[in-house]
Every structure is written in structure tokens, then in C-alpha cells.
């Protein structure tokens, strides 16, 4: 009831009402675009490919059904996400980009511009690969057909990038995340209808459905718990006298989130593993490609182990990129703070690094378990073609929490009671 009251209050505030309706309007445009087909492609062939493997099923869930329809939004916003991740990684190793990141708003604008250019390049390359991989679905295979498909898919991704930026700037929440959220949520009714069809046909029994619901509820509870989990390091600030005023002297804490990297490592690891599978699909009939598809296809034991290890590795790497213990320690020291029992400076940085290493391990293992969950769900429930797995739930729950927090912040700024008590 508190959440409904908060939504009613948000709608009654003119600025928030405008932002909410603007966001909903752009999400509706996204859903309409998911049904505009790419010219020269037979969607029925693409639909058969989706039924043949979990890789394509997962991709279809992320794109909100646009991949199955092979619409102009078939690649979703994935190239933009990959470009953003690559740009963040390059910011650490390239001094020019690192300098731009520290220049404030103007520097961030330039980095955003470079990210857009990277999105166009990655989208075009991925679109060409997708056109070649799905050549059996083309009505008139040839250079011109490949070019039309590549340009259409690239234009769709660029338009989605613009939609996401507009939602972030003028709406509520992170636009890119909300587009993925809307795509995944839009597939829930179709997934539910499929489960009902299996139930009516006798393919599965009611116990399998109950087990699926129990697993989903448990996973959602776990995701919320881990996303909100923090390790709070106490920080004490000494008193400083500036003129006639006394500053500091208070105790506070440094919050370190258990899942600081969010869902980025999962997306990056899945994107990395999709590439060799796509290449193997192009070279079907080749000895090496057939060997790879036999032992390392999506859902195999070897693929699952590599996937989990990559997620753990990327979690540590991405956490190190976005959180520098040395910078944190220097900022604490700069403002007269210290961690009780720890000397300021490098010893503080080493202590923070040790704590981060331990809590990141828990977050990384959790992400890996969530990502490989669909394989175990299939074994436990025996429900075929269920792709709404742990990764999708992780994205949906994470985006819902972040969007709710943004609404909460807007309401608190206007002295209203928010969603969370």
C-alpha cells in the first residue's frame, strides 16, 4: 500500500508526472519498433533457430522478442553496452581518456561521444556477422541483402541508444537499463502462455510449475539481498578549526557494496562467449568449428564452467576499474578522516583493498550462480525452452530497485513520503 501511495503522490507532482509519462511514451515506441521487420528476411527461419538453442533464446529475451521477429531492434542495445564497457576499461589504460574522465562535465561529454562512435562501429560489425550467420533466413542472399540488413540493424541500435539517452536526461531512471528491462518484462506473458500450453498438453505437470515459481521467488529474494548488501567500514573525522567555526569530529562509514559491478560482468562474459559460437556457426562443416560446437556449445558443461570463471574474473576486474582503494584512502586522508586502528594513507588503501577482495568474491560467485541458473532450472523442472533465467531476473530486479530509488529521491526532495519506509 505504501508503494501505491508513493506512485499516486509521484503522479500528482507535475514534474514527476511529466517525466513518468515521457518515459512510458518512449518505452512504447521501443515496443512498437520491435515489430518493424528488417526487409528481405524470413522471420519464420529465425524463429526456428531460436528454438534450436538457449543462446538465441536468451538473446531474444534481452531484445524483447525483436530478435525472433528480426525487427530493426533485433540487436537491442547490446553494442552500446559493450562500447561503454570497453571505454571504461580503456579509461584506465589510456592516459588521455583518464585525463578526460577527471575534467568534469566537458570530459565526460567527450567520452560519451567516443562511446557513441564505438557503438556504431560495434553495431555494424555485429550486424554484418548476424547477417552472415542468418544467411539461410535471407530471401535473396547476396552482397546487397547483407548490406541492407547490416544498415537496418545498425540504425535500429543507434536509435535505441538515442532513446535511452533521452529517458536518462528527461525521464526517470537509467534509459539503457530501462530498455533492457522493458524487453525482458514484455516476454513474461509469452513465457507464461508457453508454460500453460505445456501443462495442458501434458508435457509437464503442476509440480514442475510450482517448483519453477518457488525457484523464481527464491532467486528474486537472493538478488534483492545481495544487491542491497554492504560492508560498512567505520570512518572517524577529526575536528578542524577554520576561523571561528569547527568542522568534522563526526563518525561515519564507507559503504562497500557486495555486488559493486552489477550485471556488467555477466553481459561482458556472455558477449565474449557469443563471438566464437557465431564464428563456428559461419564455418559449419569445418573440423575445428564442428569440434567447438560439439563440446563448447551454449549450455554444455565446458561452456558453463568457462562462463562462470569469466564472470568471476570480470567481476574482480570491473570492480577494480570503478573503485580505486588508493584514491579512496587519499580522499579520506585529505578531509582529516581515518579508519580506527588503521594508519592513514597506504595502510588504509591496503585495508580497503583486502575488504573489497573478500566481499567481491561473494558477489562474483553469486553472479556466476545466477548466470548458470537456467541450466539447473531446466534439469529440476524439465520445462523446455525456458530462457527467463537468472540473468534476466538479475537485470529486472536491479533496474526496478534503482528506478524506485530515483523516484524516492525525487519525492524526498519535495518533502513527500516515498516508497520505502
UniProtKB/TrEMBL annotation:
Record GO biological process: intracellular protein transmembrane transport; protein targeting; protein transport by the Sec complex
Membrane topology listed for this record: Multi-pass membrane protein
GO cellular component, one term: plasma membrane
UniProtKB keywords: Cell membrane, Membrane, Protein transport, Translocation, Transmembrane, Transmembrane helix, Transport
TM annotation in the entry: 20-38, 79-97, 117-137, 143-164, 171-190, 202-226, 254-275, 295-318, 359-380, 386-404
Primary subcellular site in the record, as a coarse category: membrane
One Pfam family of this chain: SecY
Annotated compartments: Cell membrane; Membrane
Annotated family: Belongs to the SecY/SEC61-alpha family.
Function, in words: The central subunit of the protein translocation channel SecYEG. Consists of two halves formed by TMs 1-5 and 6-10. These two domains form a lateral gate at the front which open onto the bilayer between TMs 2 and 7, and are clamped together by SecE at the back. The channel is closed by both a pore ring composed of hydrophobic SecY resides and a short helix (helix 2A) on the extracellular side of the membrane which forms a plug. The plug probably moves laterally to allow the channel to open. The ring and the pore may move independently.
Subunit structure: Component of the Sec protein translocase complex. Heterotrimer consisting of SecY, SecE and SecG subunits. The heterotrimers can form oligomers, although 1 heterotrimer is thought to be able to translocate proteins. Interacts with the ribosome. Interacts with SecDF, and other proteins may be involved. Interacts with SecA.
Protein name according to UniProt: Protein translocase subunit SecY
Protein's gene: secY
Amino acid at each position: 500500500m505504501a508503494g501505491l501511495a508513493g506512485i499516486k503522490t509521484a503522479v500528482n507532482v507535475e514534474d514527476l508526472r511529466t517525466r513518468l509519462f515521457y518515459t512510458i511514451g518512449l518505452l512504447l515506441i521501443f515496443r512498437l519498433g520491435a515489430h518493424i521487420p528488417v526487409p528481405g528476411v524470413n522471420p519464420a527461419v529465425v524463429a526456428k533457430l531460436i528454438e534450436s538453442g538457449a543462446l538465441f533464446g536468451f538473446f531474444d529475451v534481452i531484445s524483447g522478442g525483436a530478435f525472433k521477429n528480426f525487427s530493426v531492434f533485433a540487436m537491442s542495445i547490446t553494442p552500446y553496452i559493450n562500447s561503454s564497457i570497453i571505454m571504461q576499461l580503456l579509461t584506465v589504460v589510456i592516459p588521455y581518456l583518464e585525463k578526460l574522465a577527471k575534467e568534469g562535465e566537458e570530459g565526460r561529454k567527450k567520452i560519451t561521444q567516443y562511446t557513441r562512435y564505438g557503438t556504431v562501429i560495434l553495431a555494424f560489425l555485429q550486424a554484418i556477422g548476424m547477417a552472415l550467420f542468418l544467411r539461410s533466413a535471407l530471401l535473396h542472399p547476396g552482397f546487397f541483402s547483407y548490406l541492407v540488413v547490416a544498415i537496418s540493424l545498425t540504425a535500429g541500435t543507434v536509435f535505441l541508444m538515442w532513446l535511452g539517452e533521452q529517458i536518462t536526461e528527461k525521464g526517470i531512471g537509467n534509459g539503457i537499463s530501462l530498455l533492457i528491462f522493458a524487453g525482458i518484462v514484455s516476454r513474461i506473458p509469452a513465457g507464461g502462455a508457453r508454460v500453460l500450453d505445456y501443462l495442458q498438453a501434458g508435457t509437464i505437470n503442476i509440480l514442475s510449475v510450482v517448483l519453477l515459481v518457488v525457484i523464481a521467488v527464491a532467486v528474486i529474494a537472493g538478488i534483492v539481498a545481495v544487491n542491497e548488501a554492504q560492508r560498512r567500514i567505520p570512518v572517524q573525522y577529526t575536528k578542524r578549526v577554520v576561523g571561528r567555526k569547527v568542522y568534522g569530529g563526526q563518525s561515519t562509514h564507507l559503504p562497500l557494496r557486495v555486488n559493486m559491478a552489477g550485471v556488467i560482468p555477466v553481459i561482458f562474459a556472455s558477449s565474449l562467449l557469443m563471438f566464437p559460437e557465431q564464428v563456428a556457426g559461419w564455418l559449419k562443416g569445418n573440423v575445428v568449428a564442428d569440434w567447438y560446437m560439439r563440446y563448447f556449445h551454449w549450455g554444455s558443461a565446458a561452456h558453463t564452467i568457462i562462463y562462470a570463471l569469466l564472470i568471476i574474473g570480470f567481476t574482480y576486474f570491473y570492480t577494480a576499474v570503478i573503485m580505486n582503494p588508493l584514491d579512496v584512502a587519499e580522499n579520506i586522508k585529505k578531509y582529516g578522516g581515518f579508519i580506527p586502528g588503521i594508519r592513514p594513507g597506504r595502510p588504509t588503501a591496503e585495508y580497503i583493498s583486502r575488504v573489497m577482495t573478500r566481499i567481491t568474491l561473494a558477489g562474483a560467485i553469486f553472479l556466476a550462480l545466477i548466470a548458470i541458473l537456467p541450466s539447473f532450472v531446466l534439469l529440476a523442472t524439465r520445462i523446455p525452452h525456458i530462457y527467463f533465467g537468472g540473468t534476466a531476473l538479475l537485470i529486472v530486479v536491479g533496474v526496478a530497485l534503482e528506478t524506485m530509488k530515483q523516484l524516492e529521491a525525487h519525492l524526498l526532495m519535495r518533502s513527500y513520503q516515498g516508497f520505502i519506509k
